[in-house]
Structure formats: structure tokens, C-alpha cells
Amino acid sequence: MTDKFSPDLTKTFLCEQTIGYYFQDKSLLWEALQTDGSPNCPTDNPRYEVGNKRLAIVGNLAMDLLLTSIWHSTVNTSAVLDSTKLTTLSKPSLEYVADKNELYRCIIRCPGTLFDVETLSTAVEAIVGAAYIDGGMTAVKRVVQKLEISI
């Protein structure tokens, strides 16, 4: 593929190596790596108008479900679950995960966009969301484990 909406195979491959999951649908990972306002996103498709934010919502919910499923098999109270979610799925915690795994090398951003807490944490959520859509909870577990997200 050579059109302007083709995945950046270098960044997607680097990301796949980093997260330990190889996508069947590379366009999902490509979408997950786009920041809001990325020049690579088609402007005529509402799905891409906010970069990776739609996938970030899916990823946040997938990690929440994984965390809740693990909690269910424990004797911990719901207060412990809520506290764990607030800590583990917080923007600063996910930014730390992105930094530790050098995910900034994979993110496709709009010129002038900084790698701030919002950009990095949203990218982690979006990558997990893309993995969920591509491979279900098995893929989410693999990515979470590889990135060492404390779930």
C-alpha cells in the first residue's frame, strides 16, 4: 500500500516488538499510534478526527475489565478495587509505562505536539484498545504483561 493512509510499518513493527503482540489488522495499531491532529489521519472519516482517543476509551475499559476480573477472584473489598483502578489506570501511571517502554518512539504525532502525560497515557490506552479489538482479552493480557502495567 502506498496511499497516504497506509500504516507506518516501521513504527507499527517497532511497537509490536515492544508490546509483544503482533496485530492481524495493522490499521488498528496505526490508528492507536496517531495523536490528536496527526497529519496522517484522513480528515473525511469521523473515526480518525480525534486521533487515537476512540481506541483509548476502548483500552481503558479493557484494562478496567481485566483488573475487575482479577479482583473478582480475590477476597478484597470493592474499595480496594476502586483504589487500585485509580492508581493503576491513572494518567501518570500510564505515562510511566509509556516512558519505561519507550513508546514515544512509536507514536505518530502532529508537529509541535509534546510527549506529555496526556499524549503518552492516551497512547498506552489506545494500544491496549487496539489489541482488544484485534485479539480480545487474551491480547490485552499479553500487552499488559509485556508493558508491565500493574494489574
Tell me what the structure shows.
The protein has 151 residues and is an all-alpha fold. 60% of the residues lie in helices and 0% in strands. It contains 6 helices and no strands. The chain is globular. Mean pLDDT is 89; it is low at 1-5.
List the helices and strands and how they pair.
Elements (H helix, E strand, L loop, with lengths): L8 H11 L6 H7 L20 H20 L5 H11 L2 H10 L16 H31 L4
Helix pairs in contact: 2-6, 3-6, 5-6
Pick out the low-confidence regions.
1-5
Quaternary status: single chain
Indicate the proportion of strand residues: under 5%
Structural class: mainly alpha
Radius of gyration computed on alpha carbons: 15 Å
Q: What summary fits the major beta sheet?
A: none
In helices, the fraction of residues equals: 55-70%
